[in-house]
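URGENT: need a sanity check before tomorrow's submission.

F., can you look over the Membrane protein record below? I want to be sure the sequence and structure line up before it goes out.
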Amino acid sequence: MWKAGLKWMFLIIGTTIGAGYASGRELWQFFGHESGLAIILFMIFFSICCLVIMKISYEKKSTDYLPVLKIIVGSKLTRVYDVMIFLYLFTTTVVMIAGSGATGQAFRFSYWWGVFFIVIALIVLFMKDISGLLAINQVILPLLLGGLLFILLLFTLDQNLNLSPNWHEQRNWTAAFPFTALNILPLIAVLGAIGSKVESKREIWIAALGSGLLLGVISYVYNSSLIQIADELLLYEIPLFAILKHYPFGMLIFMSIMLWFAIFTTAAAGVLGIVSRLKTIWHNSPVWLLATVILVLMIPLTTLGFSALISYIYPIYGILNLYVLTRLLLYPVWNKKG
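C-alpha cells as predicted:
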C-alpha cells in the first residue's frame, strides 16, 4: 500500500515539477514577497484536487482522462475541456522538447542534438508502457527533490534566513488560486490514465497528501530563498543559478542534469496524457507507436518560438482552469447534492 501510494505520489510530483518549477521561474512569477499564506493555501488546494481526481479515476477505473473530466466539468463542457487538455499537453510537451534543445546549447551541443536526444529517450521510455514512466519517476524524482532541498536548506543556513512568515503582511494570498489552477489540467490528464491501476483508497490518500505536503514545503523554502536574492534575479533566466553561484561548480552540473530530467518527466507525463486519450480512438495501436508519431509531429514545431505562443495561451488556461479548480474544491458539496 505504502509503496503503491508513493509510486502515485512521484507521478503527481513528476507531472507538476517541470523545468519552470524546478528552475524557480514559475514560483517567482506567482509568489515572491508576502506569499507564505498563498503557499500554504496552494498546499491544501493541491492535495484536495489530487484527492478528488484520483477518487473519481479510481471509482471509474479509467484508462484515460475523459470519464474523469465528464464528472468534474459536466457533459456539456467536456468537449471544450477535452480539446483544452489535448492542446495544453501538446504545447507544453513541445516547449519541454525545445527546452531540452536549449539545455544542449548550454553545454555547447547543437540545439538539434538536445531535441533528438529527448525524443529518442521518450520513445524508449514508452516501449515499456506506463511502467517505464513510473520506474523513472521513482529513481529521478528523489534525486531531484533531494538535491533541490539540500541546496535550499544549505542556502537557508548559510544566509541565516528566517523561514517564519510575517502573518501581518500576506497581501499576495490570492496567488494560490491561479498557481493551483495552472497545474490542474495535466493532473486530470495523467491521473485519469491510471484509475484502473489504483488498488485502494489508502493509496490515494498517501499520494494526494504526500505530494501536497512535499510540494508545499519545497515551494515555501524555495520562495524564501529567492526573496533573499530578489535583486539579483533580473540577471538570471533560471533563478536557481543565482543560488547555485554560491556553491562549487559540481553542484551546478548536478542540478543542470536534474533540471533536464525535470523537463523529461514533464514531457513524459504530457505524452502519457495524449497517448492514453488517443488509445480510446485507436485501440489496437501500441503505446510506443502512438508516442513516436506524436513526438515526430512535435519536432518541427519546436522552431516556431513557442515562448511567445505560451505567453498568450497560459493566461487563458489559468482563467478557464479556475472553473475546474472551483468544481474540484467544492466536489464534496455538489457531489452530495448530485
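My own read: The chain has 16 helices and no strands. The first helix runs from residue 2 to 16. If you see anything odd, call me.
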